[in-house]
Amino acid sequence: MWADSPLSVEELQSIEASLDVSERWRPHRADLSPAQWIWLPSQRTLPNTFVLFRREVKLDRAPLKATGFITADSRYRLTVNGRRVQWGPAPCDPRNLDVDPVDLTPFLSAGNNVIGVEVLFYGHGDGTWAAGKPGMIFHVCLEYEDGRRQRIVSDQSWQATVDRAHRPGQYKRWFLRSLQEEFDARLHPFGWDTPDFTADESWTTAMPLDCPSDKPPACGRYFNVDSLERVRPDRGALRLREIPPLCESEILVRRLTDAGRIEWLRDPDDWFEFRIPNSFHARREPLADEKSEGVWQLPATDGQREGVFATFEFSEQIVGWPGFTIDAPAGTIVELICQEAHDPAGPAWLDNQFFNWSRYICREGVNRFEAFDFESLRWMQLHVRNAGRPVTLSKVGVRRRAFDWPHPPHIRSDEPALQRLLDASINTLYNSAQETCVDGMARERQQYSGDGGHQLLAVRSAFGETRLAHRFLRTFSEGQTPDGFFLDCWPAYDRLARIMQRQIDGSVWGPLLDHGVGFNFDCWNHYLETGDMVALDEPYPRLLRFADYLHSIRDGAGLLPVEGLGVPAVWIDHSAYRQQRHKQCAFNLYTAAMLEHALAPIARSRGDQQRAEEYVRRGQDILAATVRRFWSTERGLFVDNLPWLAEEKKPRLSDRTLATAILFDQCPENNSTASLQALIECPAEMGLSYPCNACWRYWALARLGRADVAVQDFRRRWATMQSVVLNNTLQETWEVTPDSCSQWSHCAVAPLFVFYSDIAGVRATSPGFAACQIRPQLGDLGNLELTYHTVRGPLRFTAKRQTHGHEITIDIPAGCNAELLLPDGDEPPLRRLLPDHSLKLNRYQLQSGKKNVFQMRKHEG
Predict the structure, then answer these.
(1) Mean pLDDT of the residues in the chain
(2) Do residues 323 and 434 both lie within one domain?
(3) Could you tell me the CATH number of the domain that includes residue 800?
(4) From residue 103, how far is each of 75, 107, 193, 295 by CA, in Å?
(5) Are residues 639 and 521 in the same domain?
(6) pTM over 0.85, yes/no
(7) Are residues 357 and 455 in the same domain?
């Protein structure tokens, strides 16, 4: 367990240098004193204000080491002598602000140096920022060869100014994006973060904030109460970043795809600010003259009512900071427009998603612009206006950001369509799993449990990454309300706003109780696969409160309601159900499974036996009540609208209900035949979940030996998705359209983790992969190889197609007790274990620390 009291900078640095990985990546509480929280001298801060901080440092020699910590609310960009160092912090709860380690050793030199920190205070709610107050804190220790030490800390020795190139108080982009960036290079103090810069009267001494150095600025007394008044100091902390810095790489555009002219029929701001219809005419024209590779010249524009555009595409959808270089006259205006998907034969204009544009106004000559906040895109359009002479574009690209994965994913199929699908799944994870594990980076950038939490299975199995999942568990759990339910996307603005809206019947969206249920499974799966119980220390008491909340809202029949809940809501899925009340069966089965198969095992593993027994009893009670109300003895399965069948006439089923019942043995007398048949055939009366929840059906099919149905779905429905073919990503919904608000990179990575857990069939059965079961279901697949990166080492699986089946080789890491599960008819040269598996499968002992080779015949569905 990390220290309850905050650690000093010296103690934090000792942990940073430690070889003890279990301590290195814990979110220790931090005290950065004697550094102070500082800000612009002011009595209020407008939303989307940028403040520049500079600190001159004169050194007689270069330091041997210069390391420390920095953070800010809301986002900072750190430079030394004009060179970019890093950007942060990660999205976090305003009560628990991340502190980022920083290493300035490669950047500081003998002589004059300037440390620059550009800080954006969002002020408006954002998918990556729930609330807060402005401030910046910095503490770096310099060490020299002669043993001398020197501190550089944020205090009144720093200078500060407003960067009026970004207009303070700028309107927000949309509900979940604070910054609609507009940058006027003519107003920016270029060189401000370099030693040669001379500060003018606009620079002032930084103001210390009345906030302890071990607390976030939300605990301070600065009068900025728009998003929150003040967090009680005993509820706030600075937390050491528990994941590595993101990797950044420069990606240039693949090509120029289109160009043309825009005739503005009214003031362009009428479009950009309001989207007033009939504001312009777009006309394609080959006016971009490529002067050399990656350099294009666009013609001058005629007056205020003409613009020219150039449309660029990337090889795949990526996430990062778009940028470009332009040689243009002063006052030239460039709108940088991002879009996930575009049809080159469709509309020429790309501003048709969530107002995904940023504006840059040039000073005379060569300008380099890069967005301050990151975007998700495959297409970029530059719209140029007010250019009195031809302009030249170059270095058009994106500074891509991605997690620093400990292992490259290795999964190979000899079927091109399936490999394309798996590659798209991996690229989607590159986009969605960065500092938080989000749904999609274009629309929301919000961290969800429930359907969004499934991606953690792939994060651990394909990449062997546990720190990101650990951070997910802590940060999501911090969004628990006083009532006991979770804000289902946290840390983010969305559900804070929805609570207000729900009070006046202003939204159907509220904190989703089913995502809180899913979070219990996220916690259990993490412990089962990693053995890291410390990761559950903070979430566990919150899980207990949530369980008690659910217990308190049961109706007279012992069921959990899905309507009339007040502030929270039940979602389950939006594609599989026609009416809200049809979700009650699935929600109650889900909660019953959570109590008995997730929360009870967690409690048991923590030595909390009494609670574990209580949760098993509660789960069984809910299951019994659900059976009484929704089990159709006539049909032999759960019918979602059985209580209202006389009124509605036709029965309604859902893949989620039937799958849950199969996975957790909830069918009376284990009568799952009809449920399995429905999941195979998908009759018209059965609702199918959207892609992010499709995994439930695949898991259930695989459990009863029909993974072949899932593979066929991957081939026919997934591998042919437009997003897979065009963007190398997975789309949010089964049908998407380009040039729209459709999400083309969304965390629906079911094909990837299902290949690991149900096609290769690798599943942990004892915490930390002390034991696992492997149940291959290869069907008519060709060759397949993958590496499951367990915490005990790589588990390598290879299947080579043969005439009547496959030759399988499995390399088990040392310390893992692995069992092989096979149907009758296969007789591997392995020791048979008794008794047989409950699913009528034969058990065999695999040898750890070595390769296991055997033949497996093809089994027909």
Answers:
(1) 98
(2) no
(3) 2.60.420.10
(4) 18, 9, 17, 35
(5) yes
(6) yes
(7) no
Interval 212-262: pLDDT, tens: 999 999 999 999 889 999 999 999 999 999 999 999 999 999 999 999 999
Mark residue 751 as left, alpha or beta (left: phi above 0; alpha: psi -120 to 50; beta: remaining): alpha
Looking at residue 3, its pLDDT comes to: 54
Domain boundary among 375, 402, 429: 402
Q: Is residue 92 part of a domain?
A: yes
Rounded to whole angstroms, how far apart are CA atoms 787 and 408?
10
According to DSSP, the residues that pair with 519 across neighbouring strands are none
780, part of any domain: yes
Closest CA to 370 of 260, 378, 127, 380: 380
- DSSP letter for each residue of 483-548: TS-B-SB-SSSHHHHHHHHHHTT--S---BHHHHHHHHHHHHHHHHHH---GGGTTHHHHHHHHHH
pLDDT at 843: 97
Q: Per the omega criterion (within 30 degrees of 0), is the bond before 89 cis?
A: yes
Q: Is the pLDDT of residue 1 over 50?
A: no
What is the C-alpha to C-alpha distance for residues 859 and 805, in angstroms, rounded to an integer?
Answer: 8
Q: How many domains would you assign to the chain?
A: 4
CA torsion through residues 66, 71, 72, 77, sign: positive
- Confidence check: pLDDT of 447 > 90: yes
Q: Domain for residue 1, yes or no?
A: no
Please tell me the distance from the alpha carbon of residue 271 to that of residue 802, in angstroms, as a whole number.
Answer: 61
Domain CATH code at residue 159: 2.60.120.260
Residue 416 CB coordination number (10 Å)? 9
Structure tokens at 147: 């043993």
Structure tokens at 222: 């600065």
